[in-house]
Amino acid sequence: MRDLVEQLSGLRVRSALGVTVERAANRSDLAAAHRLRQATFVQEQGLFAGTDRDDLDDLDETVVLVARDDDGVVVGSVRLAPAVPGRDLAWWTGSRLVVASDRRGAGRIGAALVTAACGEAERLGALRFEACVQRDRADFFARLGWDVLGAVEVAGTPHVRVRWPVGRIARLVAATKEPIAAVLGGLRPGGDGWVGDDAAPVPGSDLLAACDAILPAMVERDPWWAGWCSVLVNVNDVAVKGAVPVGLLDAVGARTASQAARVLAGVKAGADAWGVPVLGGHTTLGVPASLAVTILGRAQVPVPGGGGRPGDAVTVVADLAGGWRPGHPGQWDSTTARSSAELRHLAGTVDRVRPRAAKDVSMAGIVGTIGMLAEAGGCGAVVDVAAVPTPAGAGLGAWLTCFPGFAQVLAGAPLPAGADVGPAVAATCGELVAGGGVALRWPDGEVVDVLGGRVTGLGPAGVAAQHGDPDRPPDPARRAARGEWGLAGADPTLDGPAPSTDPRSRP
């Protein structure tokens, strides 16, 4: 059923019984659903006196699905509503599942409604979807893949609480990160202390290097944005180590010179915005579109991704400005409207706050990236969903699983009040725990496991490399000399000019 739910999410569902399940289209559909509810829950079962209507029926967010036969007659319905009206917690409930008395049999119409409701809940952004069902229906829901949680009482009648295991986060991680260890084989990029990090120290130096490839489909569809993002993701990779970007190299493949020029225009715009010089690269024409960029950075004491320990606070730092990038589902653009000064200040966040461990949020989303940080530290994590900084224009479920432009997850002591993360915002929203995996915690105290201990499969990062004392901040004099980047700017000892859905395919 889980595969079916993925396919049905947001779609009009046609069952083998000649019944179609879809959203109620008008007041007539809603009235027909209410008549079925009245006949079943009031007249037949006597669960309610007079009417079964409640406050959820009047909520604008409430969704009603109806099953109609080939003649258009409504023969069943189910209701979905947010668990906490007026607040998006990615937590939805199902209720009032009903099938006309003359159409019941083998549970097939009911199963079609439940299946469609699971898909609709996931489309609405649910990361938690529950229902309270009559006790004699618990086995029916269990057969459909729901988890049976425990007994409750509704309208003075024994019920059972059940939960649909929403797989949105696990599917995202499986598609983007889970195959990495098998693909890499025995390769441990970065070596002990840095395995799984996007940027790793260059042996014998204070340089770090990172490389990101942009998805070819994105390069074909939106060359300028692909070029901009190639700089964005690489700067994020070194900035989250507390490093100063030194320079970029790009490798561009394009079908035409015009396409290559648009890609490189985006690269140039990003390089100018973050003040990182393009040191060189390679361009090939007459080939399918491709783009990969390498960045070098410099840090006295780089911050590892795997430095977290059980008991550390998990903090999310995110830029909530901007909005969804048109034409790119799952990508939040907070960067193109920012000034160069703002972008460079954001890039210096980790260097200023010096956490024990840090990762920039990648295409695995906020929760998946917390999972990678925990995995690298040999830990698990619990995330308080209500505490995660979220833009007003994004649903929580979508935000936790998108590529957010600029967002970082940090582990260590909670950031002090007034910590300089502007123009981003920061919030402590969980902790690292012994064990593995990631669980989400809601304000009612319920904890739901969403990821197992394996995210990339690379496991703990290993013994930390000796690049200085991670608890000692960089030399103040060196920091003071970092020019327009403030605490994360150009190093005056460098030769050359001073710096002026997630689309990545590697961690």
Helix content: 25-40%
Number of alpha- plus pi-helical segments: 14
For the biggest sheet, the summary is: 8 strands, mixed
Over all CA atoms, what is the radius of gyration?
26 Å
Strand content: 25-35%
Mean pLDDT metric: 89
Low-confidence stretches: 6-11, 465-507
Going across the biggest sheet, name each strand in turn. Answer: 1-2-3-4-5-6-8-7
- Describe the global form: elongated
Query: Structural class, please?
Result: alpha+beta
Distance between the termini: 31 Å
Strand segment tally: 22
Briefly characterize the structure.
The protein is α+β, with helices and mostly antiparallel strands and 507 residues long. The chain is built from 14 helices and 22 strands.
Note down, in words, how this protein is organized.
The structure is a single chain. The protein has 507 residues and is of the alpha+beta class. It is 27% helix and 26% strand. The strands form four sheets. The chain has an eight-stranded mixed beta sheet with strand order 1-2-3-4-5-6-8-7, with helices on both faces. The longest helix is centred in the N-terminal third of the chain and has 18 residues, at 27-44. It is elongated and about 80 Å long.
Keywords:
single chain; 507 residues; alpha+beta; 8-stranded mixed sheet; 7-stranded mixed sheet; 14 helices; 22 strands; elongated; disordered C terminus
List the helices and strands and how they pair.
Elements: H1 2-8, E1 13-14, E2 20-23, H2 27-44, E3 63-68, E4 74-82, E5 91-99, H3 108-123, E6 128-134, H4 138-143, E7 147-154, E8 157-164, H5 168-176, H6 180-184, E9 200-201, E10 207-214, H7 216-221, H8 223-239, E11 244-254, H9 257-274, E12 278-285, E13 290-298, E14 313-318, E15 323-324, E16 332-333, H10 340-347, H11 349-353, E17 357-360, H12 365-376, E18 380-384, H13 396-400, E19 407-412, E20 425-433, E21 438-441, E22 447-451, H14 476-480
Parallel strand pairs: 5-6, 11-12, 18-21
Antiparallel strand pairs: 1-2, 2-3, 3-4, 4-5, 6-8, 7-8, 9-10, 10-13, 11-13, 14-19, 14-20, 15-16, 17-19, 18-20, 21-22
